[in-house]
From TrEMBL:
InterPro entries: G_ENGA, GTP-bd, GTPase_Der, KH_dom-like, KH_dom-like_a/b, P-loop_NTPase, Small_GTP-bd. Gene3D superfamilies: 3.30.300.20, P-loop containing nucleotide triphosphate hydrolases. It comes from Flagellimonas allohymeniacidonis. GO terms for molecular function: GTP binding; ribosome binding. The gene is der. Keywords: GTP-binding, Nucleotide-binding, Repeat, Ribosome biogenesis. PANTHER family: GTPASE DER. This is GTPase Der. Belongs to the TRAFAC class TrmE-Era-EngA-EngB-Septin-like GTPase superfamily. EngA (Der) GTPase family. Residues 3-167, 174-349 form the EngA-type G domain. Pfam families: KH_dom-like, MMR_HSR1.
Length: 433
């Protein structure tokens, strides 16, 4: 499971600048917490080949000092609960502030690695000024400039050393995670699935206290359920609930093969659901969308078709995903949901023999070759599926850099048409040959 790093600190010290540097060209997902705080951001990063997720806990508050104080408490609490390591950012321009001292006080009690990053050290003079941050009682600090990037290498070297190893999961049983917004019906769904205790085979403690894998044997399938329970217990107020549940989803998603993305039919495929969908896709996980509480929707002749069409529009461009309309309450299509998840799991682990792949794809490519680019013609010679845990394909050609996105999408669509990859993201690489 990927490690999580949280960036905390008062507003304007440069957290989001640093965050953006960390995630580089990757996109962040934004958790729009209404009114109270600035958006929180999640993204992926890697250093020395080690991948981790980064959260910028945000924290811009329009209100008064004490509102802000409460906010920063929450921010730190979230980081303490959810992250494997914390970057505490301060600003050399302003020096140590009361708020920094507050945060430091909270962090001194934390039993997790804390990295004090003194930001805006854009030059040597400022490096000398940073010494005052020893007074925070957090020991050594790292001087960085989020704007020009200096110093961040040392910080990241130290950071990735303390992050837990991502153990390669043995490919044994499908790992399903039930994810979605609060109230979508996740707990009800899991309860309906597990029903009676006797279906539980064993409990395997997850790598963190928050994630428990439980092995089930139901409907003739064996699978591990990556549990996202325990959210309600922790969250005290509504926006925290939302945040915790997204956080928990982040973890669960990284830890699974297939996401069962549950949504409330009366609320639809909204921005937050889209975020979770996006996250699952970017992590190359299989996805099954379950539109729950279908019992609450007034049905007309084309309800399912229209509803499904709308969801697929939200999913663009990755639309080759099963969508089921279920009612956990009435136990409708719960079995079908698991059956579909197992199919998606099979699609995700599918390996197409190279010869078969070329027999199918080369004639298609011959008929519709990549368009000439800057007057150059691209010749694709052969292709192969890479030996990765999820489908990735390499197409070998003379000028890989001239193959543009639309053509890759064309290849992906042809792969999907000819080999069933429903529910599974596909990656296509163009390689030089
Ligand atoms: P946040 O509120 O902590 O997320 O802070 P931001 O990332 O929004 O940055 C606040 C301001 O500090 C912006 O104007 C940034 O351009 C500036 N800033 C961020 N990092 C640096 C840095 O390394 N050096 C300097 N000089 N300014 C910086
Ligand atoms: P979670 O926050 O995603 O775990 O959601 P819960 O499982 O706690 O469900 C939230 C609420 O939705 C509860 O009151 C459930 O009884 C209700 N609920 C769950 N599934 C269904 C369903 O299929 N139909 C209806 N009408 N209500 C449901």
């Amino acid at each position: 499971m990927g490690a999580i790093v949280a960036i905390v600190g008062r507003p304007n010290v440069g957290k989001s600048t640093f965050f953006n540097r960390l995630i580089q060209r990757r996109e962040a997902i934004v958790d729009e917490v209404s009114g109270v705080t600035r958006d929180r951001h999640y993204g992926k990063s890697d250093w020395n080949g080690k991948e981790f997720s980064v959260i910028d806990t945000g924290g811009y508050v329009v209100g008064s000092e004490d509102v802000f104080e409460k906010e920063i408490d929450k921010q730190v609490e979230l980081a303490i609960d959810e992250a494997d390591a914390i970057i505490f950012m301060v600003d050399v321009e302003s020096g140590v502030t009361g708020m920094d001292e507050e945060v430091a006080k909270l962090l001194r009690r934390v039993n997790k690695p804390v990295f004090l990053a003194v930001n805006k050290v854009d030059n040597a003079q400022r490096a000398a000024d940073a010494v005052e941050f020893y007074s925070l009682g957090l020991g050594d600090y790292y001087t960085i400039s989020s704007i020009n990037g200096s110093g961040s290498g040392e910080l990241l070297d130290a950071l990735v050393q303390v992050l837990p190893e991502t153990e390669e999961e043995e490919a044994e049983l499908p790992r399903f995670a039930v994810v979605g917004r609060p109230n979508a019906g996740k707990s009800s769904f899991i309860n309906a699935l597990i029903g009676e205790e006797r279906y539980i085979v064993t409990d395997i403690a997850g790598t963190t206290r928050d994630s428990i894998d439980t092995k089930y044997n139901r409907f003739g399938f064996e699978f591990n359920l990556v549990d996202t329970a325990g959210i309600r217990r922790k969250a005290k107020v509504k926006e925290d609930l939302e945040f915790y549940s997204v956080m928990r989803s982040v973890r669960a998603i990284e830890h699974c093969d297939i996401c069962l993305l549950l949504l409330d039919a009366t609320r639809g495929f909204d921005g937050q659901v889209q975020n979770i969908f996006w996250l699952a896709q970017r992590n190359n996980k299989g996805i099954v969308v379950l539109v729950n509480k279908w019992d609450l929707v007034e049905k007309e002749t084309n309800s399912v078709r229209d509803y499904e069409k709308k969801i697929r529009e939200q999913m663009e461009p990755f639309t080759d995903v099963p969508i089921l309309f279920i009612s956990v309450l009435n136990k409708q299509r719960i079995f079908k949901a698991i059956e579909t998840a197992v199919e998606v799991y099979k699609n995700r682990s599918k390996k197409i023999v190279t010869r078969k792949l070329n027999d199918v794809m080369l004639p298609i490519i011959e008929q519709t070759p990549p368009p000439a680019y800057k007057g150059k013609f691209v010749k694709i010679k052969f292709c192969t599926q890479l030996p990765t845990p999820y489908p990735q394909f390499a197409f070998f050609c003379n000028l890989p850099q001239y193959v543009r996105e639309p053509y890759k999408r064309f290849l992906e669509n042809k792969l999907r048409e000819n080999f069933d990859f429903t529910g599974v993201p596909i990656t296509i690489f163009m390689r030089k040959k």
